[in-house]
Amino acid sequence: xxxLMPASEPAEKIGKMKKLxxxxxxxxxNIAFKKEDSSFDEICVTKMSTRGCQGTDSVIKPLDTIPxxxxxRVQRTQSGFDPFEKPASxxxxxxxxxxxxINAKSSSTSKESPKLRRHSSPSSPTSPKFGKADxxxxxxxxxxxxxxxxxxxxSKVNGKxxxxxxxxxxxxxxxxxxxxxxxxxxxxxxxxNIVLLHDIIHTKETxxxxxxxxxxxxxxxxxxxPGGLHPDNVKLFxxxxxxxxxxxxxRYILHRDLKPQNLLISDTGELKLADFGxxxxxxxxxxxYSNEVVTLWYRPPxxxxxSTDYSTCLDMWGVGCIFIEMIQGVAAFPGMKxxxxxxxxxxxxxxxxxxxxxxxxxxxxxxxxxxxxxxSAKKLRQAWNKLGYVDQAEELASRFLQxxxxxxxxxxxALNHEYFSNLPPRLCELQDMSSIFTVPNxxxxxxxxxxxxxxxxxxxxxxxxxxxxx
Length: 470
Prior knowledge:
Blueprint: H1 11-52, H2 68-79, H3 88-108, H4 114-119, E1 136-144, E2 148-155, E3 161-168, H5 177-186, E4 197-202, E5 206-212, E6 216-217, H6 218-224, H7 231-249, E7 253-254, E8 263-265, E9 271-273, E10 280-281, H8 301-304, H9 313-328, H10 339-350, H11 380-383, H12 393-400, H13 411-414, H14 456-459
Antiparallel strand pairs: 1-2, 2-3, 3-5, 4-5, 6-8, 7-10, 8-9
Helix pairs in contact: 1-3, 7-9, 9-12
């Protein structure tokens, strides 16, 4: 039961009590607001530190208290992310949560900090961003092809050198399928021996693929060091090539255009697979592949004879040709006329195939026994004498250069070949993104040679047939 006020209480006493009650109520209300605001601040700080700033200090300072030289870095981190490092949806979610905390806090504490709200914006409209054409500066032209031009460039976001592959778009034809294929495949490949795709810029007139900059390729490197490379360097280059191929082959991807021009060499000697314009994902068996792939000199005999039923063994023939070219200093099978001439050069060394040596050869579209001179197989050192100077080199090369595709050694198996037995065992245990040059005592040997020359001779044969199909 409630206590009732006696009727005889003076009216002024009642008024004082009402006034005191109002004062106390207002004081309690203010205390509650302050406590609630403090708890909300803690929640915001916790969210920002655990979701948006992994690995940073547990206490987040307001942006206004950050020194001027560090504000730029904070803003760049929010706006200049690599689109292939983290899914865009994840990045947007983190940014929206952080901005929601900041905006809610600023509104709950009235209009006292417009500066804070200004800094909470993801980026300034004038700051350079990834994915924008004006984020890169062209420095010099490196080369030009039938549908693309490559420039050396510089990122305005982080100052790093890049290679800009600018693909011209035709209004009636749209984006070349080779560019779409290259971008879609490369954005999912992360390996130290595969060129890294940093960014994609799409405008009405062009599609630009932004790659890491690598200063030369194997073609130019061999021209600089004529007569064959140092045997130890050949071994390191081949090991890296096999590492990169093993990585993509395990993901059911065929490169389909292996040649020295498509193997980039960094200033530290790191080899990187590049130019995936003809690459193809092979997730299920298919008989629909084109036989117009791979530059003529590096095209295997089964494809030259019209086969479209091929797998990773397609790339392994090219590995054998490049291996011999690095050791001998000249192309293994430099066909100068046509496919017939190319096949004759191959059969001269490996022997003209028969159903006994190559089951199913007679069923290939372009194989007509009466069209080819009958040759018997020779030892590879008879054609390329320098193979005999390096232990196990001839045996390994012969495992790659097999006319019958199924007899060719796989990339993964080749990494365990005796030819590599004197390399540190740790090389086979490296993570995908670790360079072989992180292992102690692994380095390129000094080679003598002239300055880098333009590969005019090889480039005359450097393009695959323009009629390449899916």
